[in-house]
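seq as requested:
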Amino acid sequence: MKKIYTLILCFLICIVTACEEMEYDHVLIVVTNEGVDRPEFSDAATLKGAILDVGNLKVTNYGFCYSISAPGLNLTLETPNVKNILAGQGASAEVGEFERKIYGLEKQETYAYRAYAKTDSEVKYGKQYTFNVGDITTPVFSAQVNNISKTTATALGSVSENQLAAVGGAIQEHGHCWSAEPTPEITDPKTILGALTAAQGFTSNISGLAAGTTYYVRAYIIPTGSTTPIYSNNEVEIKTVQ
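struct tokens:
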């Protein structure tokens, strides 16, 4: 009889242990921070969240889903659309806080957002919150060009404190671009002057121009965390010396 009790006790212990391990294997806790960091008049905002526990699971992607809010909106990854945008961070096996800066917000709109973490078998979400976007001011800065010769020119530009604040306080790349056609873009010849974290003027030495040719020049900046350039509000037309 004692042997039977011992066997039953061992069996129960195995069941309890297996249940505890099974439950822990599937623990995945994600939270969304309420409130976003958004400079006044900016079209960008920083969302924050955290993964508190991953158990024994492998997180294949995590980040935020966000959208212009609508009545009854429930953001998910399974029903993506043009208004349900994913700001993914990639894979992670660690717990901790994370954040993601998003761009291209529309003025006078309310956005819904929540954090998520995805494994091979499930997606877990944090609580959904909303934030309001008021007026948005596009940074206004101008370009100038002087010292024009047969093959070179000097281009000037500047970024003010207000302009810097409007793009979140940091610029990862700036410079000038030019082309023989109007409205040059960064896919055309350009200078790359690096990052900016303070308001200042900047100068580009343009070379490789053809003599007696008309060119169009614009300054540009790319905010940190973005791939979309912002161009100067004016375009300078120059003609090199014959």
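Residues 60 and 91 are 4 Å apart (CA to CA).
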